[in-house]
DNA sequence: TGCACTTTCGCAACAGCGTTGCCAAAGTGG
DNA sequence: CCACTTTGGCAACGCTGTTGCGAAAGTGCA
């Protein structure tokens, strides 16, 4: 590690703690304790952050016998990122500030089959609208890390825009931002979505699977118990997929193929799935949903979740997606019962892994997509 | 990150590259390229390492028109670690040098039911024999990182002993080094193995599951394609378990429970397992083994491995354990066929995940246990 | 054989990081 | 009002990796 890298590493570390502290703020001494740095070093770092407009003083704590601690907080409006959720028939674009709060949103219908040009145009227009509408008049620079391209280009006056994150279902290559196969739309096969969009918008673009984006967003929002922990986001909608956060980072695998939860085989001689296997969870679970048997769907989902929990020893299971939204309590209870029974039989210390409904509802993917750009600023390497 | 932390971080990084270069060695300029540091920084770092006796010059490369590069290599005998594989009926202790090469070994029968005192005594004696027998006369200091306790204490004249790693089957707490339940031996429940052994031997002790140790050892030995990659080690012996390496690090989970591969349910209405579930891979696979149907055992194992591969998008599957050793080709072929068929159906780019027999045979766990102490010296946080 | 050239590597000076020593600021409590 | 505690900034410092320059050690050509 380089000296320059060290500086930005520590700055990102402090910035991350400032964000996690939220509106409550955090004092310099607390930052020093948590980072392991000396108070003086924190003072220098926070001074640089304040110069750049990323941090500010925000009142004081009660005194404990001496000079009261000065509370520092993140300046959320010092930077923004756009998150795009590209689904088969819908487009959702959000603008979030550094805190992750949504400051603008836009939804529209979309036809993926209309061709690359039309879709790119629609996405670009929506991004421009959302970004420009909120950033008009804001001119304070928030030069990010090393890779900052600086604004001024495509998005009018948006000096504080970090970039655009795009999340979509299909198999794709996250590292290169290239789509593989989009079921039903062969013309998208191999399309370099990241570079095409980056050229149009003249800002950094990151592409990822929808489930990964959702998992990242949930990891950031703190619902999952802080950094360094592991959880799974199970998305039950038109399909069944998972986003995995392991040790605080989104795990994607070398081919961005991780999280293929739906085609886990749980019944060797089960019904044939369109993937070619027999007895995939997806077939069994969605079949039960189609029959209206939510209990069975939840039970099957629970068995598969149990396999995952046992394999990875994760801390929380979060459920999301349209199907879950239709009967959240039933799914949480059904999955929880399976996991609970398994934990009791195995005598796991600390009891069963908790099961919850993922917060943020339908916006979770779009918000997570925006975090693809923000996370690196806060010391989380998973972008 | 601290400045001191930065120094040891970079030193560990260089040391890791030196180890990976093996007997061939590596030049300063190559080290600079791979670490991203300037050649001068590498010169300083390697000078410190040479002062400590951890690195040495080893000849020169052919000139490419100028002064030929000086080749540096790790000095393997500058440090040693002991690896202990504690099985239900057997004890295996190895002494490895910094390169991971076994320089001494000792096997003995063991009765876990003989009680803590007797087992601790047997382990301590074996460790002393293996360590002292090889380190007699070696006195050069190899002060490791920060946590070095320094030798001189319990193990006679073993100034270069980094510590002792212990690997054993049962569920346990890796972070605290405490056993949970050892099936069939309730008196071990909650036993603080790490601290008890550390006190007896007066050297650092680390405790981990056998499958995790094996996975770490395999990650280090380079069979799995270098750092940063992911693989699964599937151990088929008296039970069926897995060791997972994700992104170059052993994934254990908060409760050291990760890798519970054998009780993955793959047949909802399958035969009852002793764990209480129905249709676990372990029951199905070991049942087929008992019937002598290796093909079916491999097929079932392949389905479960396919679930794992899909979920984590790993790069390699390594098979090990006594049962696999009995018919290695059959298992590799059987599992490979299932994974291959699945990859073809899904049109995965790059083809199916390769399946291989884990190298090092019966010693893989003991060698990996020793790596529990060596890995941190080489910049791999997974200890 | 001699010289020009290339490449490697170390010494010395340097900029920048976090650290230490010291002091002003801003509270509490007697 | 003063003693005391605690916070946070200023200046000097040690140490990090970096830059500038030169010695060392080869190759290749005249």
Question: What this model shows, in words?
Answer:
The structure is a homodimer of 383-residue chains. Chain A has 383 residues and is α/β, with parallel strands linked by helices. The first copy, chain A, has 3 domains: 3-74, Arc Repressor Mutant, subunit A, CATH 1.10.10; 77-212, 2-Layer Sandwich (Nucleotidyltransferase, domain 5); 222-359, ATPase, nucleotide binding domain (Nucleotidyltransferase, domain 5), CATH 3.30.420.40. Helices cover 38% and strands 20% of the residues of chain A. Chain A contains 11 helices and 15 strands. The first copy, chain A, has helices spanning 3-21, 28-35, 39-51, 116-135, 193-201, 210-220, 281-290, 294-312, 322-326, 328-346, 364-374; strands spanning 26-27, 55-60, 70-74, 80-86, 90-97, 102-109, 161-168, 172-173, 178-179, 205-209, 231-236, 240-246, 249-250, 316-320, 355-357. The first copy, chain A, has a 5-stranded mixed sheet. In chain A, β5 and β6 (102-109) form a beta hairpin. The longest helix of chain A has 20 residues, at 116-135. Chain A is globular and about 70 Å long. The model of chain A is unreliable at 136-158 (pLDDT under 50).
